[in-house]
Every structure is written in C-alpha cells, then in structure tokens.
Amino acid sequence: MLHRIVGSGLVTTPFFRFTTGSGSGLDPVFTAASATFAWINPDKSISTGTTPSPVLNETGDYTVKCSDWSDVTEFDCNSDDIEALDNLHVFSALTTLKCTDNDIVALNPRAIPTLTALHCNDNSLTALDVTTLVILERLDCYSNSIASLNVIALVALVTIHCADNGMAEAAVDDILADLVTAGASNGTITMAGTNAAPSGVGDKNILIGRGWTVTTS
Predict the structure, then answer these.
(1) Parts of the chain with a pLDDT under 70
(2) What is the predicted pLDDT for the residue at 1?
C-alpha cells in the first residue's frame, strides 16, 4: 500500500492527513518561519514542534495541524511512495512544492498560485494544469506521461524541464509557441527524450535569439 497526503478541504480549520501504508516510512518536511505544528499520531498521542520533519513509520492515519499555514513556504515530500497529494489549497502562501519520485497520478497545483517552483518529476502524471501559476519561475515535470502543457500565461517561467513525457509533435510545438508568447528571456527548456521533435525550428530559434537554451528531440 502506498502513502496518501490529503488536505482537509476546510478553510477555517485546515489540516493535512497522512495515511501511511506498509513498507518504508513517510518523512514530510515543512519549512516555516515561526509557525508551530501538532501531529496527532495513529495511537492518538500528540507530537509538537516548530520545524517538523518526522518519520512516520506506523501504518495508519496521522493528522498535522499548523498554527498558521500561511507561514509555510516550502513542502518537501520527495521519494515518499506517495500516490495521492490532494487539497493543496491548505498551503495559502507556499512558494516551493517538492513531490518528485513518487507514484502520484493526479496533482492540482492550480490551488496554490503563490508557487514559484514546482518539482513533480518522476511520477505517474498524465495531465498537469499550471495555468494559474503566473509567478512560477521553475517547473520540473519530466519523466511522467503528461500529454500537453499550457504555459502561455506563465510570464515568469524561465526554467522548464519536461522531457520524457511521450508528448506528440503538436504538444511540443504548443509549448514552444506558448513560451514565445509569454515573452521571458534567458531561460532554459529541456524537452527531449521520449517527446517528439517540433515540426519546425521557428519558435525554437526565436527563443534562442532571446537567450534561451532549448533542448528538443
């Protein structure tokens, strides 16, 4: 059984529930300036701290509450055998989300438009909607199965790694065209591997002329 991290869905008293399966433990890390956290363990005991990074080894449900979720700026759950990461609106001021190397099949980062960096590579995603992340600067989503990406509104995006998603030619063309329209300069995009080659070099050359490093199939 894989692990699940699901927000409460509540606005007034939000919390996260961590459901741990068998096998390796779960070790989520929150970064906050001064907020305090309370962990309710499966045996109903409570653990507290200011910068929690527990290893959740006991199979069952853990609940974490925070004195101020808007103080949390980074959440790291890389390499934790996670299959679900839901209700991310709990993080009302999150700037960095790291959830790479898991088994996540669906992710909704649209709920946290404060993100400037999203690392979700090496999962099982088939779609990724980042259209509301207008201040996003870095997107790592390589080694998934994402069929297409709409990044036309991401005017701050200067680093995008989306290789090895099995994208068709039209999807590759759309990403390059979106970046041209978004207008950023001096960026980096890697989209080779299992992705198709672009149908032409027009948009690629425009980006290169703006100082981009562009790697395609």
Answers:
(1) 1-2, 8-13, 20-26, 49-58
(2) 44
Domain that holds residue 63: 1-89
Report phi then psi at 39, rounded to 5: -105, 125
- Give the span between the Cα atoms of 192 and 66, in whole angstroms: 41
Residue 180 is predicted with a pLDDT of: 98
Number of structural domains found in the chain: 2
Percent residues over pLDDT 90 in the chain: 58
Among 89, 124, 140, the domain boundary falls at: 89
Q: Say how far apart CA 111 and CA 106 lie, in whole Å.
A: 13
Element (H, E) at 203: helix 202-209
Helix runs in 47-184, H state only: 169-182
DSSP 8-state assignment for residue 193: T
The pTM of the full predicted model, rounded to 2 decimals, is: 0.91
83 plus 122 within the same structural domain: no
